[in-house]
Amino acid sequence: MFGFFKKDPLKKLQNEYEAKLKEAMHMQRNGKIREYSFLSSEAEDIRLKIQAAKAELGK
How many other C-beta atoms can be found within 10 angstroms of the C-beta atom of residue 26? Predict the structure, then answer.
């Protein structure tokens, strides 16, 4: 009945992923390549979590 109050975990992960990519882009533009690669790696980990969650849900 109150299922519409539940937050979508995929949406949360997608927002985290986009935030990491945006932050990584800013690091790259500022010449901070080490930080860029670290943030890109974290974004990739989040992307893999999103793919696993989608596969689990059958989307």
Answer: 13
